[in-house]
């Protein structure tokens, strides 16, 4: 008992020290481009802490200013930062440590001014990625009660109301990507819309949310493998799109990972009696069945291009592996998936720790082998070929991996606390 209490006390002291070090970032929204960030404080990260906390503390040491978590030189309204910082806030809430929530709030206070205007945001670009920080704003609104966060959320909902759509109602990925649905977009827009609909009494939104996932699967699912292609172009005008089907050429791991994460997050808010809820559950189950068919049998992780493990240049990729693992363990915890996925998720989490996690002597944790970015079209043009997907830079601590890693860790920690593992 004494040892446990002392450990908790020391852990709380370390978090408090770190919080003090981060205070300038949390209270200075006028941070200017080019100014030096505050010095990181070296706090030994003990291996007795849960993995979620170890990763969160490591992130906070590497980037004392929260907005610097995406390898950038100025504050940006960015889906990657929304993902990482909401994940850190969830770590703080689950483990009762206000330092983590305060750190995430530093991004909110940097990006949202007192009138609720969003820095570095242009509604008229109709970029679905801009919606993804919405759940972080919801957390901050509930934590602080500050009306500026509600105002900013209303702005994001206004974008969704006017987001351009395909002829069957699917959101365009961006205004500059006309007639295109990307799997990524299902995570970017729908979890926030579902949470907003539940908490602010917009039940009519759930029909539309379900339609997005159902339409994406209808257009992008390969009947032979059950996997989903990265993108679909209704116009067939893009060079990356098949002239007959409109589909891109390959099954990119992280694209399918975004889709699976979007499903498990949306289901948290979906009405139990909604007529399309069973179909969403069926989509999640059959998509993960297909994903399991291409899991690497040795490491229990996944490849950059999912179904081509033997092709030269392909590699085991961490961000998609974390996303699939999160979707499986959360699905098992919430009853969205069969209990057998609990064991499968544990195998993959162990594989992630073995294959992708590096721990420094001071205890700081790094996630390696993450694809930095991948997309379709644009300038320079991304043709969706195998050669394209393996050509993008690979880096450590990509926010699109460390966020899902923390989320998966939290789900395992939650399951452990209720003796489900």
UniProtKB/TrEMBL annotation:
<dbReference type="GO" id="GO:0016787">
    <property type="term" value="F:hydrolase activity"/>
</dbReference>
<dbReference type="InterPro" id="IPR008928">
    <property type="entry name" value="6-hairpin_glycosidase_sf"/>
</dbReference>
<dbReference type="InterPro" id="IPR010905">
    <property type="entry name" value="Glyco_hydro_88"/>
</dbReference>
<feature type="signal peptide">
    <location>
        <begin position="1"/>
        <end position="28"/>
    </location>
</feature>
<dbReference type="GO" id="GO:0005975">
    <property type="term" value="P:carbohydrate metabolic process"/>
</dbReference>
<protein>
    <submittedName>
        <fullName>Glycoside hydrolase family 88 protein</fullName>
    </submittedName>
</protein>
<dbReference type="InterPro" id="IPR012341">
    <property type="entry name" value="6hp_glycosidase-like_sf"/>
</dbReference>
<dbReference type="InterPro" id="IPR052043">
    <property type="entry name" value="PolySaccharide_Degr_Enz"/>
</dbReference>
<keyword id="KW-0378">Hydrolase</keyword>
<keyword id="KW-0732">Signal</keyword>
<dbReference type="Pfam" id="PF07470">
    <property type="entry name" value="Glyco_hydro_88"/>
</dbReference>
């Amino acid at each position: 008992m004494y040892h446990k209490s002392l450990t908790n006390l020391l852990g709380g002291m370390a978090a408090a020290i770190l919080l003090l070090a981060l205070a300038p970032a949390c209270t200075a929204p006028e941070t200017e481009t080019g100014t030096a960030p505050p010095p990181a404080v070296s706090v030994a990260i003990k291996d007795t802490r849960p993995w979620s906390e170890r990763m969160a503390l490591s992130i906070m040491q590497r980037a004392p200013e929260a907005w610097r978590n995406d390898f950038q030189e100025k504050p940006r309204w960015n889906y990657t930062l929304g993902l990482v910082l909401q994940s850190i806030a969830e770590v703080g809430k689950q483990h009762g440590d206000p330092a983590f929530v305060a750190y995430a709030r530093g991004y909110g206070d940097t990006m949202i001014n007192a009138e609720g205007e969003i820095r570095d945001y242009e509604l008229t670009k109709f970029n679905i990625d801009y919606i993804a920080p919405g759940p972080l704003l919801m957390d901050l609104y509930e934590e602080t009660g500050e009306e500026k966060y509600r105002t900013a959320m209303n702005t994001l909902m206004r974008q969704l109301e006017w987001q351009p759509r395909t002829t069957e109602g699917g959101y365009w990925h961006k205004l500059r990507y006309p007639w295109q649905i990307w799997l990524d977009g299902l995570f970017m827009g729908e979890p926030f819309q579902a949470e907003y609909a539940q908490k602010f009494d917009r039940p009519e939104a759930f029909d539309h949310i379900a339609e997005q996932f159902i339409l994406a699967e209808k257009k992008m699912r390969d009947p032979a493998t059950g996997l989903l292609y990265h993108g679909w172009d209704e116009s067939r005008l893009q060079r990356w799109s098949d002239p007959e089907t409109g589909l891109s050429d390959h099954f990119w791991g992280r694209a399918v990972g975004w889709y699976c994460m979007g499903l498990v997050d949306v289901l948290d808010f979906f009405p139990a009696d909604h007529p399309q809820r069973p179909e969403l559950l069926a989509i999640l189950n059959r998509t993960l069945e297909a994903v399991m068919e291409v899991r690497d049998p040795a490491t229990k992780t996944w490849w950059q291009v999912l179904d081509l493990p033997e092709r030269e240049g392909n590699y085991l990729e961490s961000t998609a592996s974390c996303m699939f693992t999160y979707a499986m363990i959360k699905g098992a915890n919430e009853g969205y998936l069969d209990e057998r996925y609990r064991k499968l998720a544990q195998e993959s989490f162990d594989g992630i720790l073995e294959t992708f996690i590096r721990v420094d002597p001071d205890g700081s944790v790094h996630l390696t082998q993450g694809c930095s970015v991948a997309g379709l079209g644009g300038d320079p043009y991304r043709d969706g070929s195998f050669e394209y997907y393996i050509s993008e830079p690979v880096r450590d601590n990509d926010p699109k991996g460390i966020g899902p890693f923390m989320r998966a860790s939290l789900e395992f920690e939650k399951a452990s606390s209720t003796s489900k593992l």
